[in-house]
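Hello Y.,

Per our agreement to keep a running log of every chain we model this quarter, I'm adding this entry. I've kept the format consistent with earlier entries: sequence first, then predicted structure.
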Amino acid sequence: MKKYLLLLLTFIFCHYAYTQTGNIIGSVKTSDGKPAAYVNIGLKGTTKGASTNNEGYYEIKNVKEGTYTLIASFVGLKTQELQITVTAGQTTSVSQVVLEENYERLREVIVYGAQSNSYTTDIPSKTLRINTPLVEIPQNIQVIPQEVIEDQQSIDMLETVSRNVSGVQMIEHWGNFARINMRGFKIPAFRNGMNVEMPWGPLTEDMAIVERIEFVKGPAGFMLSSGEPGGLYNVVTKKPSRYQQKEVTLMMGSFNTLRSTVDVGGAFEEDGKLLYRLNLMGSTKGSHRGYEFNHRYTVAPSLRYEVSDKTSVSAEYIYQYSKMSVVGAAYVFSPTGFGDLPRDFTLAEPNIDPTDINEHNIFVTLNHQLSSQWAVTAQLGYLNYNQVGSSLWPESVEPNGDIIRGIGVWDALNESKLGQVFVNGEVKTGSIAHEILAGVDIGHKDYFADWFQGGPLAGSVPFNVYNPQHGVPSDSIPVFDRSRSIRKRAYGSYPAISGQRYSSLYAQDELSLFDNKVRLSLALRYTAYSGWTYGQSTDDDVLTPRVGLSISVAKNTSVYGLYDQSFIPQAGASFDGEAFEPVKAKNLEAGIKRSWFDGRWNSTLAVYQITKDNVLTGDPENPNFSIQLGQVQSKGFEFDVQGEVVKGLQVVLNYANTNVEVTEDTNEALIGTRVAGHSRHITNGWLHYRLPDNIFNGLGVSLGYQYQVDRSSWNWGADNESVLPDYFRLDGAVSWQNDDFNIAINVNNLLNEYLYSGSAYATYYYWQTEPGTNFRVNLAYKF
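Predicted structure for the entry above:
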């Protein structure tokens, strides 16, 4: 293996030694003479490109000698092209490009283009509905671009994606979905701006289909108002564009990891109206725990048809399949405390049938430019998640370590039908400019599950965690009856079904004052919600206001304040028969944002206080009932830095201080107690340095850490803080790239620490371990 790797590296370096390159520089302005920031510039027929900075300048490095077409392509704007010639060893200066729209119109444009190899992102995706640059939005929004994901070699949402945003904590999982907490609360999953959250789902997105991930901190009325107030994460998938995309990758690593991806795209005909993108992924991997595996593949084709310069229609299909070991195999159980078993310990057996998951996701999107000031977007989404499998959980844990392992059926079906229409526009009243956002959201979700069949694994024979003996006879594994459909089996000893219906209207006016130096956002959302869980239903009609203020105190610097609300439906009734009101949550937030050195790196400092009212607590006069007198409060501050702080050094650095506690309760002893599900202190860092032009041109090194202090992961009640030991992990990487090849070697957990996450539960403890030192080698080729 070492010989082959050496030969491969030798070939790559030799190939590069004979490649002669030059650089391209230029600038872009709008028709009113202002610098055009955030515009993507690309070379037709290649993947080379760059984004303009705040002054409208761009630079494209390491371009092979030859003649190219420089292209700026925008939906709703006429494509602009320039012929240029690149000479080896020289810098080509391109004549100034003038866009045919003014700066205010430019902010509404959907930008499609090549990667800029930068960790910074200046504007949110169109799927977040707002056209304002991130530095001017009165809310803490952090974006993880594709470049960060690739450098860290993350392959799905279960991995280290959360390290790139302050205060985000990955809670233990069942192996198929990501449970992410932010500001102490669970946050829902969005895809392309649509809420795809479901119980124990959706299936984690493979990074082969991901363009970027956006984290919105706190309630976000411009998206949805129902749900926990911690925020949301929005996965933006790869889209068709005119840029020719042809890339294949091959990854090998620890635990028999083998993974390959294909990414191709472009126009079916040169200057044609029909664009395409196809992403394929196949992987197989084991685990540091025995009998644990996950085999996956993904197929994601998408099309965009440009009906005219003003109208486009897109269709996207995502199919993800996973065959994995029994759900729950990652958990370790002990009667004495955390971490007293080897990290490769497992309760699983090799002859337990695997769990199969099939997920189908469809998006259809219409974008239409009504005029130079108004645009409308309509999107339909459909998600079908089908799971057939089982789960492990102990029926009992004895003080001597004897466990009766229980295995139960876990078949599930989730179906989500989603729709949204929103309008973006601009009007003026005197000297005041108004950015208008108005829209409607509709959602129908149903979740069916069968948990009602099962029994002890190996009968009454105990399994001792301190002296594990594997090898259960096949006839001692319970057999499940699947002769009826999952919809019928979902009604067992109690209705194991949940669902929700909602329709919501939203309107927002962002007033631009004093030549856009002051921006005031006024918004209101109305939501009609009905839902049911385990036979209990709830119906709510809720108004949630939003007020935001952003002030540009200096060039590329803004301070902001925000007030926003969300609500959480609650089923049930009080002793008097009164239906419970929804939990009302409000977020007070303030911060300062800055884009440094022509947008090369960005920083955000935010402080917040989230208060949840109407929380259920014990009724002191009727002990068997609840009353809505509880209150929970989360407060803290966050700091994020992203981008190229010095030439060649890309940085992700963040810190969060989070404190979540009970502030009101009928039981005074609970007031001031901590609510589990967060770490008081989290800091993460990732540094990636690409060596300057010399004999080592293309060589890069990376180093990253994750550090959590005073952490807890799961909330089984306010009186159970489940405090875990501090967490520290160190990772590193070495890479080399040129125009065609990229090879990277990542090593995680360099210090070989015993790392885990878990909680106390009843009379025992459970946790999930992470692997010790492990590696991945990834080879990418663009053609």
